[in-house]
Specification:
Elements: H1 12-31, E1 36-37, E2 42-43, E3 46-52, H2 62-73, E4 80-84, H3 86-92, H4 97-108, E5 113-118, E6 121-124, H5 133-136, E7 142-151, E8 160-168, H6 172-187, H7 190-196, E9 200-201, E10 212-213, H8 215-235, E11 238-239, E12 245-247, H9 248-254, H10 256-260, E13 266-267, E14 276-278, H11 283-290, E15 302-306, E16 309-311, E17 327-329, E18 332-337, H12 342-359, E19 365-370, H13 383-399, E20 405-408, E21 417-423, E22 429-438, H14 440-444, E23 449-450, E24 456-457, E25 460-465, H15 470-480, E26 494-498, H16 504-516, E27 521-523, H17 530-539, E28 544-548, H18 550-555, E29 558-562, E30 580-584, H19 586-599
The structure holds one RNA strand.
RNA sequence: GCCGUUGUAGCUUAGUGGUAAAGCACGUCAUUGGUAAUGACGAGACCGUGAGUCCGAUCCUCACCAACGGCUCCA
């Protein structure tokens, strides 16, 4: 069965991948009698195929399955299709409830039913195969990759099927290249680099999804937060400080209790009947700061920022490094404003988001996240309010000529949003920045302001985050920079390396000079040889180091060396590239460092 | 939570039904060395946790915990 999306381009690689999915079906049905095949599309790096299997398949069975596939392919001369009647289709797939469900659905939608045949295979399919599989399929350019569970039709209420993933390319070389690239990407993995560079740790005793940041890691996390603070000040967001747990009542009014109770952690007090909850977000509390005194239309927008810890009871299988945690924070902010202020508020925030991501040299895309009108129960508020608020957001993007894609069903429970999406080293997408429009929460908390005409009105609430969650963002940044943090984010910025013991004193003077100027400097005065000291600096991905020996002392000039040849690190950058050397005076060194730190480097971020 | 994989020293890994090996890192001593591995010696692990089978379990079985890759979810 194929799952060809009509938009999909039927390239040769597509045909190969799609044909392989059919081939896998045939092999599995021979090796596992009683196996039922469900869907099996071509994907970016190969294909997958879902099965309902009589017994478990594990990766150890892959060689046997691949061998069978290579046998069967010899018997596939042609791949031909023909249209069939609903009756014929029903009869052919009476044994397979998944196919039956699909063919009934296609028929009811008035779609044509087609069977495709090759060798002994007969499958319900739209087409898009190699015409002569035995001649055209490169049999050494595919490899079964992994096995995973997947719910039938993506619904967790349905039966879990076995999904077998395969890698497939047009040539063996491409396959090998892809596997190598994936290995390389794994070297950038923030979980691996986080350990190697001593940035954060987990402990079985502390619990899963609860990272502890070491001094170096905490430095980076704090630097990310402090940069958010600078940007918040620019936008007029005043930082507030709020408690970590609240009465349940707060979340009942906000609506989170009803919709997200399962994801909230309970706190019990021996002095009160009702449970408390560790807060999974800050917005309800911020409404109460707003509500603490009467507000005039002249006061708006009123803007609060918050970096409080948040707690979410994520399911164990969903946790992942720093990108998905149970305890984390957001660079959260809420603006309460009038309707006529929505546009400028959004534009200002968009501008600052762009500035931040430009500074970090991140690539990103913008998604307009809308509600799913077919599942209104997932959201708060009436369809009219949703239509109106979605239109406002879309118009802002259009007027500012900003490229965006639409994400149906990606909205927050209380309103539509603009999300900034970026990728990790393995190509998985993560939301970072977000700007959300909310007409609902202010109503639920009965927030008001007095308008120019003396009447009480309800403000609009804008929820926003510049980097999303500093922890997640740090994980993505580690991969983005391959651990080669720019100078302003580096826990250690420069290392002073004396060649021999008798150079230690001179080196110490330079160390003190830099330290007095708030440069994060280390002195390598341990009794080790030069090679080892330099190696340590490189392994720790320290941006700069200075070697001090007789030459330097005589000339009064320093030999400054840089981790990345003087270039700012890129996501393609890696350890071990050539370093650059230059001779500078102490004053020049200090000036150069201070300038690079204060500007944070600068080059336009690419909108992809 | 579900499907699959994994868990041996700080790190990376080897290995076995009879309580375990190596490299790096670490410590001591020697080496005063000009840019990715100076030498010698030493210390370091009840083999994720708990139970079971066995004369005996790191190894086999079960349960739990945790990590990784997916699915679902992601305020």
């Amino acid at each position: 069965m194929c799952y060809c999306r009509s938009m999909e381009k039927v390239t040769n690689a597509y045909k190969i991948r799609h044909t392989l999915a059919h081939l896998l079906v045939t092999a599995i049905k021979e090796l596992y009698p009683g196996a039922k095949n469900a869907i099996g599309p071509a994907i970016d790096d190969g294909f997958y195929q879902d099965f309902d299997l009589p017994k478990a398949v594990s990766v150890e069975d892959f060689p046997k399955i691949e061998k069978k596939m290579r046998e069967i392919i010899k018997t596939w001369d042609t791949f031909t299709g023909r249209e069939v009647t609903l009756e014929e289709a029903r009869a052919e797939f009476a044994w397979n409830e998944y196919k039956t469900e699909l063919l009934e659905e296609f028929a009811s939608e008035g779609k044509k039913l087609t069977f495709y045949t090759s060798g002994t295979l007969v499958d319900l399919c739209k087409g898009g195969h190699l015409e002569h599989p035995n001649k055209d399929l490169p049999i050494d350019a595919f490899k079964l990759d992994r096995v995973a569970g997947a719910y039938w039709r993506g619904d967790e209420k349905n039966k879990m099927l076995t999904r077998i993933y395969g890698l497939a390319f047009e040539t063996k070389e491409e396959l090998e290249k892809y596997i190598d690239q994936r290995e390389e990407a794994k070297k950038r993995d923030h979980k691996k680099l986080g350990k190697e560079l001593d940035l954060f740790v987990f402990s079985d005793l502390v619990g899963s999804g609860m990272p502890m940041f070491t001094p170096k890691g905490a430095f980076i996390r704090n630097s990310i937060i402090n940069f958010c603070r600078e940007l918040n000040a620019e936008l007029g967001f005043g930082e507030v400080h709020t408690p970590n747990f609240n009465k349940a009542e707060l979340f009942k009014i906000s609506g989170h209790y009803e919709k997200y109770k399962e994801d909230m952690l309970t706190v019990r007090s021996q002095y009160s009947e009702e449970d408390f909850f560790l807060k999974p977000m800050n917005c309800p509390q911020h409404t109460q700061i707003y509500a603490s005194r009467p507000r005039s239309y002249r006061d708006l927008p009123i803007r609060y920022a918050d970096f409080a810890n948040l707690y979410r009871d994520e399911r164990p299988g969903e946790l992942s490094g720093l990108t998905r945690l149970r305890c984390f924070c957001q660079d959260d902010g809420h603006a309460f404003c009038r309707e006529d202020q929505i546009k400028s508020e959004f534009e200002n925030i968009l501008g600052v988001v762009k500035k931040a991501l430009t500074t970090y040299k991140m690539n990103y895309k913008i998604r307009l996240s809308l509600w799913d009108p077919e599942k209104p129960e997932k959201y708060l508020g009436s369809p009219e309010v949703w239509e109106r608020s979605q239109e406002i957001l879309e118009n802002i993007l259009k007027e500012n000529k900003i490229k965006y894609e639409i994400g149906v069903g990606e909205a927050a429970i209380y309103g539509p949003k603009m999300d900034i999406i970026t990728k990790d080293s393995l190509g998985r997408e993560w939301q970072i920045s977000t700007i959300q429009l909310d007409f609902i929460m202010p109503q639920r908390f009965k927030l008001t302001y007095t308008d120019a005409d003396g009447k009480e009105k309800t403000p609009v609430m804008i929820h926003r985050a510049i980097v999303g969650s500093p922890e997640r963002f740090m994980g993505i940044l580690i991969e983005h920079y391959s651990g080669n943090f720019p100078l302003w984010l580096s826990p250690v910025q420069i290392k002073i390396i004396p060649v021999r013991e008798n150079h230690n004193e001179y080196a110490k003077n330079i160390f003190e000079l830099l330290k007095e100027n708030n440069i994060r400097v280390e002195l390598a005065n341990e009794d080790e040889n030069l090679g080892k000291k330099v190696r340590d600096a490189k392994n720790n991905k320290i941006p700069y180091w200075v070697v001090i020996g007789d030459k330097e002392i005589e000339s009064g000039k320093l030999t400054l060396e840089s981790r990345d040849g003087g270039q700012m690190p890129t996501s393609e950058g890696e350890n071990g590239t050539e370093t650059s050397k230059s001779n500078v005076s102490q004053e020049e060194l200090l000036k150069k460092l201070l300038e690079e730190i204060s500007t944070k480097g600068a080059a336009p971020a690419k909108l992809v």
